[in-house]
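Structure first, sequence second, as always.
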């Protein structure tokens, strides 16, 4: 027959295992939240990099346009000075 002390020990062991389970579950939930934050940060970073690349491409187009305009002005000046 089971004694009261045996039952109390079994209950204490069950409570301890439940506490361990809750601790593991809390850690897993915290890890999941952390992973979601990291993924969100990565998506934002990728978006920012895309915008920067687009800005660089726009800047390159503007520089080429300015260089072409400068070349045209140079040609016009050379022609004017040759006359």
């Amino acid at each position: 027959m089971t004694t009261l002390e045996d039952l109390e020990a079994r209950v204490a062991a069950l409570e301890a295992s439940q506490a361990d389970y809750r601790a593991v579950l809390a850690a897993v939930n915290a890890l999941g939240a952390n992973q979601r934050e990291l993924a969100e940060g990565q998506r934002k970073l990728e978006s920012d990099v895309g915008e920067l690349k687009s800005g660089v491409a726009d800047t390159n187009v503007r520089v080429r346009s300015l260089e072409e305009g400068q070349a045209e002005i140079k040609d016009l000046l050379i022609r004017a000075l040759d006359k």
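Margin note: The helical segments are 4-82.
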